[in-house]
Structure prediction request, 452 residues.
Amino acid sequence: MIDQLNEKEIMLLVIKYLKEMKKKEFAEIMDELHPYDMAKLYDSLPEKHQHKFLSFLTARQIATLLQELEQEDQHAILQKLGLEKSSQVMDIMENDDLADMLNGLSGEKIEQLLASMKKEESQTVQNLLSYPPDTAGGIMTNRYVWIRNYYTVQEAIDKLRSFAEMAENIYYLYVLDEDKKLVGVVSYRDLLLADTNDKIDDIMFSRVISVNVDMDQEEVAQIIERYDFIAVPVVDHDNHLVGIVTVDDIIDVMIAEANEDIEKLSASGKAIDFDTSAMTATVRRLPWLVLLLFIGILSAKIMSYFEATLNQVVMLAYFLPMIAGMTGNTGTQSLAVVVRGLVSREIDRNTIVRLIWRELGVGMMIGLVCGILIFVIAYVWEGSLIFAMVVGLSLLLTLIIGTLAGTVIPLMLYWLKVDPAVASGPLITTLNDIFSISVYFGTASAFISHLM
Prediction:
């Protein structure tokens, strides 16, 4: 029945069951919903129905619901559930998701919630909370299946069956020695294809690709993308297996990192979404814009030095917006290419040199084409060969400079261990305005006697 209803119809039906206290019919609908759809349904319900909605759910359903919500909504639900019900739910939640949820709470509240949980689960979450949130340790889960290398395939399958329900990922089984050091990995496919009497030692991969517990989450994402893993093991400095990072967590990381880079590229600072208030959005955007304002004043100061040139050849002002705009555009294009490359691949000296030479060539070819076009347009418009040459040559030079600025500035920041995304589009554009004005009026001043 539910597959024939749209979201609004499902919500109205759920509200009807909540009002009429029809828990059985309510449960039938919940059994058909994916956790994401359940979370979306909860979020769309009027606030007056949300508390009863939660009371109709089982602890396991609430656990899956929480894992699909934003942190702010998670904390609100914990408040509604109370300490006793919250502890039941947290004992069921995936430990890595639980650690992420608790990260935004006060230390006192975290201690209170952890104290109410089962001791073993509480200790595991505390261990996860001890790692920085943007590292492999901060995003890993400890719910995996490990085996010994002397197991037979049948023994490994039996253990997998026993722990499959609690494991977050059963595609890989990790082989540990007596000291709990990672010595191999076996895929579920390998088990299916092997004879039940084969030894794990004979079918396992001993060259295990793993990540250190302190590795940055972006590097972990690159490794999973590079090797097409569904999960990657996390080890400490002594090669003891301490957890795994799964691909679903990496997708969240990649989305978060992409959003962060977009915020920096747009010079908007911290996250701003549709629900952000006008005051908050203003506070987050204003610092960058004030900085760019003062940098822009430098452009005006430079123009004042060429006041005499502009007064003598007023027609120069006609092409100034085009020169500045084109320079900013080509710089932003190069910036996007470099930032994307720095995120997706390893960079060495040879790569940087090739990139700079490549972008120099791109700037020269783009500048040459655009310079010739604007030369023709300026000549037809003003009928002055010298004036057309000044505009065309200026555009050629500024496009080369703009392309190189969009390439070199983020590379310099990367070399200085600063996130290159802070070389935002507006910053590159503003700097290129200064370059373009200087080159344009400098070229015009050199030919001022011929322009008069």
User: Anything to note?
Assistant: The chain has 22 helices and six strands. The chain has three domains: 2-139, 146-256, 278-451.
